[in-house]
Amino acid sequence: MQQIHNARWVGDGGTYSLLVDGGRLLQVKPGGGSWSEAGRTIDLAGGWVSPGLVDLQLNGALGVEFSELSPEAGLEQLERIAAYLWSIGIAAWLPTLISVPVGKLHQAMEIIARFQPKAGRARILGVHLEGPFLNPEYEGAHMRQYLLPLTIEDAKAVLGDHSALVRLITLAPELDPDERVIPWLVERGIAVSLGHTAATFEQAGRAFDRGARLVTHIFNAQRPFHHREPGVVGAALLDRRVQCLCIPDGIHLHPATVRLLLALKGTDALIPVSDAVAPLGIADGEYDWHGLRITVQAGQVTLADGRLAGSALSLTDVLVRLIEQGDLDRGSALSMAAVAPRRALGLTVGWPTASDGDDLLFWPAHRSRPVRLDDL
Q1: Where does Zn(2+) bind (predicted)?
Q2: Residue 21 known to be catalytic
Q3: Contact at 8 Å (CB) between 119 and 125?
Q4: Which residues in the chain are classed under CATH 2.30.40.10?
Q5: What CATH number labels 52-345?
Q6: Which terminus in the chain has less CB density within 10 A, N or C?
């Protein structure tokens, strides 16, 4: 049994004392206090405590791409990845499936739906479909031959029997001239994010009015902001209903752009993501990725023509860079990576119960990144 004092909780910035046993949170005392029965005492000295991080856009890790999961090895691969993510402070994630043949999407979703992680593993909260309803003009690293029109019939075909598993879908709203698909998805409990899109300011605004509430990797793979046509970027920055997924890694966004986003949207409406692909957690080098050759160096992933193809940095790495480049305090950054993504999915955020109290991260002043209790 351990007691932890002078810990600031990201939920409200208040100072608390915690009683923890075997990784389970037993009691919380606002403002301080102690327990006579507790053994080891830890003074966090104003350091932060937070729920584990949540990555809403993670395409793969440890050499595995989620869109390519196989029936033979998929469950074991997910178990290894869940253990790895937990070890670096990530409590939950949305496996993100990119534009591949519909049959492969269904196979991957079937495997993910069957996955039940062991204790001490990151949890899967559902699936993020990044495609295939994307504009070819801003396809990025997606393969054009697998992109589909945006119709309710095509959406039904892509979701198949897995609509309850899909929590988030990235799409280009201008592909739906009848403007029917976004309300249809939202009615089924699927959050809609605009991305890989040439949407104008007006088209993006109508998509937000119809229920889209997110933008995927803002400024990347979408119509650039222009003073005569602000596009989806301008619409998202002005709309208080909208949260923006961003990749503040110093590669996808310039540090000044990160500070601009923070100034315009604030920490509650910006959600850092990794956008990591299969090389996350393995060595730099050249790899085959969906039939393409990619180069991985210092966290950056590029195609042969120099286009970015995701990242090889974890959300924990991105969090550290966000603090440096956004001129943020640790509590605000932790809230962006732990609280904001949960709220985007409609999840409540509070002190973990005794059954899941090991879902806590601690960030004392002397540590360069957040750690779990065993590493304090």
Answers
A1: 130, 196, 217
A2: no
A3: no
A4: 2-50+356-375
A5: 3.20.20.140
A6: N
